[in-house]
UniProtKB/TrEMBL annotation:
GO terms for biological process: methylation. It comes from Halogranum gelatinilyticum. Coiled coil: none annotated. Keywords: Methyltransferase, Transferase. The lineage of its organism: Archaea, Methanobacteriati, Methanobacteriota, Stenosarchaea group, Halobacteria. One of its GO terms (molecular function) is methyltransferase activity. It comes from the Archaea. CDD domains: AdoMet_MTases. Residues 56-136 form the Methyltransferase domain. It holds the Pfam family Methyltransf_31. This is Methyltransferase domain-containing protein.
Length: 213
């Protein structure tokens, strides 16, 4: 099961996995970290997020779909503390090990989903990096609406979606049809009570939306 999940995770960055990798040792959180580091589009998206997310030193930040905690660790020095949540427990487990190795104490990682983030304290800013598109892939606009509804229920000041989404019309089936249109993500955030205050197109399939109450 874990191996299947890891293989599923491999597709998240849309990087090709060789047969040897799939057959011999699957995909690990360490692989994800090194692939992310080498992914130029991911790094541009992350840089924009770090430069523009309106995070204050006293803020509590939720990194939903935290994976190996890349974003959480980057944000830890900018806020009071970061809560990392992920639906697949092997990822926050690995992120906890990284936190211990690095001696970073203001991050915590545990189970949580878009629909049920599993957070019992007030959150100032919610971040979803390369994660929310999976809700659309799983269940289309209805699932995306439920996911954004779950995050909106935390009543944060701001939601930052730095993610895969479509910034251009689909012209062929290979044209990122499983990604949510940017307009749909923005509309759902508005329906949930937010105002869109920034949109940055990184590529035609990756971008950042900042939504504020
Ligand atoms: C591509 S990884 C991104 C990880 C990290 N945010 C980053 O930027 O590197 C997507 C993560 O979203 C998580 N995820 C998928 N569906 C989720 C859901 N419904 N609720 C919470 N996390 C979810 C996956 O388990 C995975 O760790």
């Amino acid at each position: 099961m874990i191996r299947e999940t890891l293989i599923h995770q491999y597709s998240l960055l849309a990087l090709p996995m060789t047969d040897t990798e799939r057959d011999c040792h699957g995909y690990t959180p360490m692989d994800y970290d090194s692939d992310s580091e080498a992914d130029e589009v991911y790094q541009r998206c992350l840089s924009y997020l770090l430069a523009h997310a309106p995070i204050e030193p006293d803020d509590v930040v939720l990194d939903i779909g935290t994976g190996t905690g890349i974003v959480a660790f980057e944000l830890a020095s900018k806020c009071d503390h970061v809560i990392g949540r992920d639906i697949y427990d092997e990822w926050p487990r690995y992120a906890r090990e990284k936190a211990e190795q690095r001696g970073i104490e203001n991050v915590s990682f545990s189970h949580g989903s878009f629909r049920e983030p599993n957070v019992d304290e007030p959150v100032d800013v919610v971040i979803a990096s390369y994660a929310l598109y999976m809700a659309y892939d799983e269940g289309g606009e209805d699932e995306l609406r439920a996911a954004i509804g779950g995050l909106a229920s935390l009543n944060s000041r701001c939601i930052v979606i730095a993610d895969k989404m479509r910034f251009a019309p689909v012209q062929s089936p290979s044209d990122y049809e499983t990604l949510p249109p940017m307009g749909t993500v923005a509309d759902l955030l508005v329906d949930a009570g937010f105002t869109i205050t920034d949109i940055e197109i990184i590529t035609k399939s990756v971008g950042v939306i900042i939504a504020t109450r």
